[in-house]
Amino acid sequence: MREIVLSRADSSSAGEMSAIAASSDFCAKWSASDFESEASNKFARIYAAFYGGEMAGFAAFRFCREDAELTNFAVRGRYRRSGIGSMLLAKGIESALSEGVKNITLEVSEKNSAAIALYEKFKFKTVSVRKKFYNNSDDALLMLREI
């Protein structure tokens, strides 16, 4: 059985992350240059999961003092429901703890029930709703986890 390997992503993985984002229904559709820029941002942490040498998913966070935000997150379709999303989210939370973060926030489409269930599993709570946030039709849930 192959092992899932987590590592910090850098700009060399930008194209692969962009392809995963493009194939996801709910994540932000960042371009390769967006991922390159984020990877070089001193406040950003992007974690990638690899299975058999293939990138299976990523989680991008921004850290600012006691606050962090999950800014983008996707798992390649064939790897969904395999635990990779949980591993990536746990890695980001672990990193936040080690950096003194007290609060982690994220936005998620109200229609993304799989992601909402994952976030709730990790003790995120809905604290606000942004009406018609996505494409002027779907609401976004603002979720928070206090550490």
Task: Provide tags for this entry.
about 150 residues, alpha+beta, Aminopeptidase, seven-stranded mixed β-sheet, 4 helices, 7 strands, about 30% helix, globular
Uncertain runs:
none
Q: How many individual helices? A: 4
- Distance between termini? 34 Å
Structure summary, number of beta strands: 7
| String of helices and strands | EHHEEEHEHEE
Which CATH C-level class is it? Alpha Beta
The CATH superfamily turns out to be Gcn5-related N-acetyltransferase (GNAT)
Shape: globular
The secondary-structure class comes to: alpha+beta
Using the CA coordinates, give the radius of gyration. Answer: 14 Å
The biggest sheet, with number of strands, parallel, antiparallel or mixed sense and barrel status, is: 7 strands, mixed
Q: What is the number of independent domains?
A: 1
CATH architecture: 3-Layer(aba) Sandwich
State which percent range the strand residues make up. 35-45%
Averaged pLDDT: 95
CATH topology: Aminopeptidase
